[in-house]
């Protein structure tokens, strides 16, 4: 099997195409069956598991060299976060020079050595979770392209950042996955149809009938208990949800809008009606915003990065109204437009992947057992640790160290008790 992958890779190098397409090449279509051999499965993370949403605190972004985005966009992101750049050993100097010459803050650049097959880090990059111990880690999936180098990227990232790595034996792609951070996720039909265990080729239902194989993996490995899988209303070859929709917050969603004369109008409105009928994690209807894309502009293919939103624009009269939609939906964010080699099915979001803030504590100080409540159980956990009857995890120690002196002792127990009694 390694020989087959090597032959495919060599043929890619000898191809006249400088970059692989976001879709399949003819040769990849002939070798599509090899995707099934690229997956693996580990034990799942310790539960309960929670998937991290795009709009949560991020310490960096994942890109690759040769770049799929402009150095001006890289420079803008490097103002606030770390640029993690996947690059082969032989190209690291070229990558450095390209960014340095463009004025990128190189103090905020880290190189992750390893070859890649394409620049769609969103599609093959890692999916992030918080496990039951409050530890942030990666849960990998099998990339839905026969591109072994891209498929190995999540593991390379885990090694570079020294974070736990898990793998779920499910075929997927990051451009077709969005999550709210509270157990709700959404995708188009390929989340089911590309997994043989689902035994379905349904490309039209909104929503699709559930697939137990995929849904069980999503719950066990990613903490997803509500998975909205719908037919792709764009009816495009790529079938990615980020080409037409986006979770903006746990209660807000953006969906593209087209004129009634557009061939996909009815299906887009049908999927909009569906999401209008389901509830958020708070038990309320989604607040849905619409962005006009009459010529299939990729305005939903944006990147939320902490307090900024990077939006792909097309130098058209529709750019302004699209940016106004973002300003209305996210009034506390800075909206930054960027041009690029964008297409209806491939834009900014496809080529950048967020890296969560690994130092960010998911729980408040004193919540030692991490159940979102400070009570007598947290006192018991801490006392037992002090007495040597159990051992707290590193995150739990940080939560128990109330006076930040680097030691968990009776002084911390007293402060937790004081919190409880007010």
What summary fits the major beta sheet? 4 strands, mixed
- CATH architect. name of the largest domain: 5-stranded Propeller
Low-pLDDT residue intervals, each spanning 5 or more residues: 1-17
Q: Based on DSSP secondary structure assignment, what is the total number of beta strands?
A: 17
Overall shape: globular
Q: What's the assembly state of these chains?
A: single chain
CATH class of the largest domain: Alpha Beta
Average pLDDT, all residues: 94
The N- and C-terminal alpha carbons lie at a distance of: 64 Å
* Radius of gyration over C-alpha positions, nearest whole angstrom: 22 Å
Structural category: alpha/beta
Helix content: 25-40%
Strand order of the largest sheet: 1-5-6-7
Strand content: 15-25%
Number of domains: 2
Number of helices: 14
Name the CATH superfamily assignment of the largest domain: L-arginine/glycine Amidinotransferase, Chain A
What name does the CATH topology of the largest domain carry? L-arginine/glycine Amidinotransferase, Chain A
